[in-house]
Specification:
The structure holds two protein chains of two kinds. By secondary structure, chain A is mainly alpha-helical. Chain A folds into two domains: 3-389, no CATH class; 406-519. Chain A is built from 21 helices and five strands. Chain B is 13% helix and 28% strand. Chain B has one helix spanning 2-30, and strands at residues 75-76, 83-85, 111-113, 118-136, 149-153, 163-167, 191-207, 216-218, 220-227. In chain B, strands 1, 2, 4, 5, 6, 7 and 9 form a seven-stranded antiparallel beta sheet that branches. The radius of gyration of chain B is 30 Å and the shape is globular. Chain B starts with a helix and ends with a strand. The chains are: A mainly alpha, B alpha+beta. Chain A binds chain B through residues 33-34, 37, 40-41, 54, 57-58, 260-261, 277-279, 334, 395, 401-402, 405-407, 427, 429, 432, 436-440, 442-443, 451-456, 474-475, 477-478, 489-494, 496-500, 510, 514, 517, and chain B through 35, 38, 40-53, 56, 60-61, 92, 107, 141-144, 170-172, 178, 182-183, 185, 211-213.
């Protein structure tokens, strides 16, 4: 067996491992506020065929349209029979897809480096965590890698197919999330800087030629077509096209005025390098960061005569540097936003690992490098397991951000246990009285109940005394107490760390429930 | 003749009324009923909420506790008294924390027991009339402890003479009977329970996890009472 075959064999194992980490128990984690938002928006598309791009919330349409085939197969067009696993299949598959796309880069960074990058992406706790999360980020990264990989293939083949493929991926990036503009900027600037910086040091045959005008038009046309189709809801909402551009105005404002999502510039890098909260464990993806530094050194190392730096490697280094700077300088930060630049770190780390092995001529150094890589990978793998199967909704996990508490599932369980004992069963009236940020993910979990209303103020919610179930935020309980004190039982459940919800249960319903429980 | 006319008119009226009434009734019962369709407001979509990772020391609800009156001569009985528990090896902290007088909400001041129903037991080293019991489970975050049950007895094994002074296990999930007391949110001023002068030497406090995790915590328990004369 030659080295190439062994590397391909290893790559297959890596993909299978990545699939394993991402696929198992996809429904383990309670739905995050944002996931539930996306899911309910998707439910409208699934059941009614309606989608309208909202330039102030929810990001682009790709997540919803690409979720349709999974839902059709799993639950037809019924939103209530949809489940978390079905929804999370799309990001899960594209999370594995990112690794497969690395193969398209093998002549840009070497097959060995692509395999190493695949290994790091497969076991990176951050990459796995957000591949099991029904939000746009993993899709964005998949399309980003696809766009760059297809463009790289175009430079190798000059085929219009790859120009169209790159355009398609860019169009999908645009149709996924407004923050693609940061990635586009970094991609273009990196291309410019790479060409300038390598003008003299790269052999002329290695320097990619400018694309043909016709191919450039194919690239732009494909990208424009796919984004127009999606943003216009397949021409049902032409306004969506204009809104997709106007959205940058509102997102620009949000980026500057980050409110409680404002974090210092070192937030992402610190999180990746070292995190520990309370008495929780230490988290670190330092292996990837360290090897990315080696990869970065390889990309910018002083050249000796006859040596040349791979064009693509320096491009990735510039992209990573620029994207990291841009995302870090924007005050608005949520942990999943780091993925579009972290993927650059992973590629550089892949190159860094293969570079270290290549320059370790003596056996002892080679063994040392292999040992460090092996131990580092075991460390990453253990953290990956911990992040996704043990601390999956625990705020001591750095990738858990404003996540729904496990106790919230006890609230849902209580409602599900009570409903069979009410004459109206799943049609029993449930009133939710909270501000919107304390209402989610209730709409997802109560999707099977026919009569659920959401109000922000007690005074707006109408008569309350005979309502079987009322869920309220704590700030409403003092107003609710006079109406409900005598005829409702009160329980508390944690929505998110430090945020409790009150559940008022009609006393008759509760007594019936207790009696049945006693009998059973 | 007039009498007959009146009689006829009366009989006609009664028949007509019954017929009409029956008609109305049957109309009511025959009419197909449908569910009253309520137009309920939909949830509002809103962006990512605030991430709270650091302890939240703010008071969540309620006003400051009103003064609680006890008989003259009431003493703090529990300070530095021996503590035992259902879990002999706490996950975090020491049993002594429960009666050491430290009530800080910070790390290092509480004892943590594993999941499920757990208890701590304080030996007052003598029988007293217990007038008030004050508990702090954990107050650096808004959380509610489940199945809080306080029992007192003169029997260290709680087999005889057991009296329950507080029980908010409304679904009997702890298996000690259904309680009528209400759940409450932990705050820094603790939860005061009126033990109404019940006579006992031992105080046992149960809980079964909380809204944040499955663990059971105690920062401090204070038992106030007067000597038995």
């Amino acid at each position: 067996m030659n080295k190439k075959t062994a590397l391909y064999g290893l790559f297959i194992l890596v993909v299978l491992g990545a699939l394993l980490f991402r696929l198992i128990q996809l429904d383990l984690r309670p739905m995050h506020h944002d996931e539930a938002n996306q899911a309910v928006k998707f439910g409208i598309l699934l059941e009614k065929g309606e989608y309208r791009y909202d330039r102030t919330e929810h990001h682009g349409p790709s997540l919803y349209y690409l979720s349709l085939p999974f839902a059709w197969v799993a639950s037809g067009t019924s939103f209530s029979s949809l489940n978390e696993e079905t929804l999370r299949l799309l990001p899960m598959i594209l999370g594995v897809g990112i690794i497969l796309l690395f193969l398209l880069l093998k002549d840009g960074v070497s097959l060995e480096a692509a395999v190493f990058a695949g290994i790091f992406a497969a076991v990176s706790p951050a990459m796995v965590f957000y591949s099991r999360f029904y939000i746009q980020e993993t899709l964005l990264v998949f399309f980003l890698v696809g766009a760059v990989a297809a463009a790289w293939r175009y430079t190798r083949t000059r085929s219009p197919f790859w120009a169209a493929a790159s355009g398609l991926f860019c169009g999908m990036m645009f149709a996924t999330k407004e923050t693609c503009i940061i990635a586009f900027g970094a991609m273009l600037a990196a291309l410019f800087l790479t060409r300038i910086s390598l003008k003299k040091s790269v052999r002329q045959e290695d320097m990619p030629d400018m694309p043909k005008i016709s191919h450039l038009l194919i690239f732009l046309g494909t990208g424009a077509l796919v984004s127009l189709l999606l943003y216009s809801s397949f021409f049902q909402n032409p306004k969506g096209i204009l809104d997709s551009v106007l959205a940058f105005g509102s997102y620009l404002g949000r980026a500057g005025d980050a409110g409680f999502h404002s974090h210092p510039f070192y937030y992402y890098l610190k999180m990746l390098a070292f995190s520990q909260y309370g008495n929780g464990p230490v988290w670190s993806e330092a292996l990837i960061l360290g090897l990315a530094l080696v990869g970065g050194y390889a990309a910018f190392r002083p050249l000796t005569n006859g040596d040349s730096v791979p064009f693509f490697l320096r491009y990735v280094a510039f992209y990573t540097l620029l994207a990291t700077a841009a995302y870090s300088l924007i005050p608005y930060k949520t942990p999943w936003n780091m993925l579009p630049f972290y993927i650059g770190f992973i590629l550089l780390a892949g190159y860094g690992a293969s570079f270290l092995l290549r320059i370790s001529k003596k056996l002892i150094f080679r063994i040392a490098v292999i040992l460090v890589l092996g131990l580092g990978l075991i460390h990453l793998g253990m953290q990956c397991y911990r992040a996704n199967f043990k601390y999956y909704a625990d705020s001591r996990n750095p990738y858990v951000y404003a996540h729904t508490s496990m106790d919230f599932m006890n609230l849902i369980q209580r409602i599900n246990d009570l409903s069979p004992h009410h004459p109206d069963q799943e049609q029993m009236l449930i009133k939710v009285i909270t501000q919107p940020d304390e209402a989610w993910p209730l709409p997802w979990y109560l999707r099977g109940f026919g009569r659920v209303g959401y109000w922000q103020e007690v005074g707006e919610a109408g008569a309350l005394a005979n309502v079987p179930l009322i869920i309220s935020s704590l700030d409403k309980t003092s107003q609710l107490q006079p109406y409900l004190e005598d005829n409702h039982l009160l329980e508390y459940y944690e929505l998110r760390p430090g945020i409790l919800l009150a559940l008022y249960i009609d006393q008759n319903l509760w007594d019936t429930f207790l009696q049945k429980k006693k009998v059973n | 003749m007039i009498k007959k006319i009146y009689l006829f008119a009366f009989a006609f009226s009664v028949t007509a009324l019954f017929t009409l009434g029956g008609g109305i009734d049957s109309q009511n019962t025959d009419q197909e009923k449908v569910v009253l369709e309520l137009k309920l407001p939909k949830p509002m979509f809103v962006g990512t909420p605030k991430n709270i990772r650091s302890p939240n020391l703010e008071r969540i609800t309620g006003k400051k506790r009103r003064p609680f009156y006890v008989p003259k001569g009431t003493l703090l009985l529990s300070l530095d008294k021996p503590v035992t528990g259902s879990d002999t090896e706490p996950i975090i902290g020491e049993m002594e924390f429960v009666t050491d007088g430290e009530k800080s909400g910070e790390e290092g001041y509480y004892v943590e027991f594993g999941p499920g129903v757990q208890y701590v037991q304080i030996d007052l080293e003598g029988s007293y009339h217990l007038n008030a019991i004050l508990i702090w489970h954990y107050h650096s975050q808004a959380r509610v402890y489940r199945d809080v049950i306080i029992q007192v007895s003169d029997d260290a094994d709680f087999i005889t003479g057991v009296k329950t002074v507080f029980n908010n296990d409304h679904d009997n999930s702890a298996g000690l009977g259904v309680g009528k007391d209400k759940e409450y949110i932990e705050v820094n001023e603790g939860r005061l329970v009126d033990s109404r002068g019940v006579k006992a030497r031992y105080v046992r406090l149960y809980s079964r996890g909380n809204t944040s995790n499955d663990m059971n915590h105690y920062v401090e328990v204070e038992v106030y009472g007067t000597p038995v004369k």
